[in-house]
Amino acid sequence: MLYAQMKEPQTHGTPMFPIAWYEWHGGIADVPMLNCHWHDQCEFFMIYNGMAYFTVDGVSNQINTGDLVFIPSGRMHMAEPVNDEPFYYRAVVFDAATLCESVEIARVKYITPMLEGKYHIKTIFSKDLDNGCTDAFDNLFITLFDTPPAYELISVGYLLKLLGYVFAASGESPEPIPYVSNIQIIKKVITYIEENFSETITVDKLCGLAGMSRGHFTKMFRRFTSKSPIDYVISIRLRHAAMILCERDDKLINIAIDTGFNNLSYFIRSFSEAFGCSPTEYRKMYYRRSV
After folding, report:
1. Which residues, other chains included, contact 18 with Cβ-Cβ below 8 Å and sequence gap of 6+?
2. E strands within the chain?
3. Residue 154 phi, psi (nearest 5)
4. Does residue 6 fall inside a structural domain?
5. How far is it, in rounded angstroms, from Cα 102 to Cα 212?
6. Both 199 and 248 in a single domain?
7. 14-64, pLDDT tens digit by residue?
8. Cα separation of 38 and 180, whole Å?
């Protein structure tokens, strides 16, 4: 299934315990990938089966089974399969600022400077070279999953240990990170697409929004999302179409129009290519699950 594409609106965890865990096992007609998005919380992400190309702020690396990725707050990130083979992952999302409020040195010396972009943060940790870090993540995830007595304290301990590994491997950045302005431009464009996907969206409109020439904008947009602007718009529309198919028993032509497709045949063909089945087949598999 195509995943959320922009800033995630939900808060992960609770104010008392700002940590949440997720895992993805895959499923019929689902594509285990994460499209370009960002959120206010930090995240640790581990592949536990398969391989993926993981991109953070336009920089892509191949990660393998057991490798760990750290994504600081607000950083655009995405994951794609290698050779179209499925991959499965576990993730822990947390509010670093809330977590370290009562630990003054952690907040002042590390977390606040990181949130202000004053660290060149290392993001990829290999299971072969950084096994202490990946082992700590395994222990954190198991603790959150099993919830043993006092699991909250144990989880916070493992999470602070993980952050210690991250900062030990990272370097301070005395100057502002140079690509931040480009990231903000892409975020602005992605947000616009998400909010207006059902309307007519042209590359020229997006270029004007970004304040860039067509060639420069297209190149930069592809760097951050791995898609051309038009392909990205189509992927947003298809994701919303899939959600509608799961939620209501409406005519396909109505769903196509509601999601910005003016041609039913093109909608069906695009959907089938993205999900591996027709919209009708997809609804048969998933409609009953959501009601």
Report:
1. 12, 41, 94, 95, 98, 99
2. 19-24, 34-37, 42-49, 52-56, 59-63, 68-71, 77-81, 88-94, 119-120, 124-125, 171-172
3. -65, -45
4. no
5. 44
6. yes
7. 778 899 998 886 543 344 457 788 888 999 999 989 999 999 888 889 999
8. 14
3-state secondary structure of 90: strand
**pTM for the full model?**
0.75
Same domain, 25 and 163: yes
Render pLDDT for 156-185 as a digit per residue (tens, 0 to 9): 999 999 999 999 988 776 555 555 678 888
Q: What six digits make up the tokens of 286?
A: 């998933």
In a domain, 2, yes or no: no
Domain match, 118 and 84 both: yes
* 145 and 186 inside one domain: no
Cα 86 to Cα 4, 50, 202, 273, 278, distances in angstroms: 18, 7, 32, 16, 20
Measuring CA to CA, how many Å separate 92 from each of 35, 87, 141, 189, 255? 17, 17, 7, 27, 34
Total tally of structural domains belonging to the chain: 2
With CA atoms as reference, report the closest residue to 271 among 241, 228, 291. Answer: 241
Range of the domain at 234: 180-290
Relative to beta strand 19-24, strand 59-63 is: unpaired
Residues 193 and 231 in one domain: yes
Q: Per the domain annotation, does 46 fall within a domain? A: yes
Which amino acid does the sequence have at 106? A
Q: How far apart are CA 63 and CA 44, in angstroms?
A: 13
Contacts of 145 (CB under 8 A, 6+ apart): 21
Which domain-ending residue is among 142, 172, 202?
A: 172
Q: Distance between CA 56 and CA 74 in Å, rounded?
A: 10
- What secondary structure does DSSP assign to 12-61, as a single string? PS-SSS-EEEEEE---TT----EEEEB-SSEEEEEEEES-EEEEETTEEE
Q: Are residues 29 and 164 in the same domain?
A: yes
